[in-house]
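User: Here's a structure from my thesis project, written as structure tokens. My advisor, Dr. K., wants to see whether a designed sequence matches the one we expressed. Can you design one independently, without my sequence as a hint?
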């Protein structure tokens, strides 16, 4: 699945490059809510088969909520994206630690 398949319902994604040439996404929920500079890997991150950020946004469209987003909801999207970025940056270390610990218990 390509990240462009993960666009929010009525929103859009715009790709641009950062200073190092890495692609970033500007994620638009609507004409007034935009999160700039979301790394492609963060936007495409799935958990349990669901794209986390897209799913979160899909439940916050004005048609469902019956109201615009609250500032706390806008901020929460950024918090979630940063947590996902941290998990992705630690993935290799976490996997190695899991293999080490699993190896300690394989003789049991």
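Assistant: Designed independently from the structure alone:
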């Amino acid at each position: 699945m390509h990240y462009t398949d993960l666009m929010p319902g009525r929103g859009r994604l715009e790709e641009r490059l950062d200073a190092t040439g890495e692609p970033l996404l500007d994620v638009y929920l609507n004409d007034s809510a935009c999160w700039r500079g979301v790394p492609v890997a963060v936007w495409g991150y799935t958990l349990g088969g669901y794209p986390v950020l897209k799913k979160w946004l899909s439940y916050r469209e004005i048609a469902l909520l019956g109201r615009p987003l609250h500032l706390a909801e806008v901020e929460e999207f950024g918090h979630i994206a940063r947590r996902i970025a941290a998990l992705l940056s630690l993935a290799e270390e976490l996997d190695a630690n899991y293999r080490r610990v699993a190896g300690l218990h394989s003789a049991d």
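When you compare it with your expressed construct, this may help: Helices lie at 40-43, 52-58, 62-65, 71-105.
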